[in-house]
Design a protein that fits this description.
With about 110 residues, the chain is α+β, with helices and mostly antiparallel strands. The chain has helices at about 5-10, 40-50, 85-110, and strands spanning about 10-15, 20, 30-35, 40, 60, 80-85. The structure holds zinc ion.
Length: about 110
């Protein structure tokens, strides 16, 4: 099997749109993949196959506004190259929203 076949064998599509990694996941919740004797992060590997090396100072965000809710998601369209600072800002906003969303949802349901 080549790298792509091994990669694809570890991906499961779930309702909601995420492509979840079914292989090993590290302590931070990211999928890991062995390529050329190295252990790499699965979502970074697939992104780099498409777009080339991730530049210094940049990270991949699992984009919440595109429906991505999982760190072990490896769907290319759910990933975006952002600066470390942008990624942190998004993380803060996401955590704040996640706290209030159930409240907002119940307001909406009451209003409906
Ligand atoms: Zn996703």
């Amino acid at each position: 099997m080549n790298d792509w076949q091994r990669f694809a064998a570890k991906v499961s599509r779930i309702p909601g749109g995420c492509w979840v990694w079914t292989g090993t996941v590290n302590s931070d919740g990211y999928g890991t993949f062995h390529v050329d004797g190295r252990r790499v992060l699965a979502h970074r590997w697939v992104w780099e196959q498409a777009y080339g090396p991730i530049p210094d100072g940049f990270e991949l965000d699992h984009v919440w506004s595109r429906g991505c809710r999982r760190r072990d998601c490896v769907r290319l369209s759910h990933l975006q190259l952002v600066t470390h600072r942008e990624n942190c800002v998004r993380g803060v906003i996401r955590r704040k929203l996640q706290k209030v969303l159930p409240v907002v949802q119940s307001w909406t349901e009451e209003a409906a």
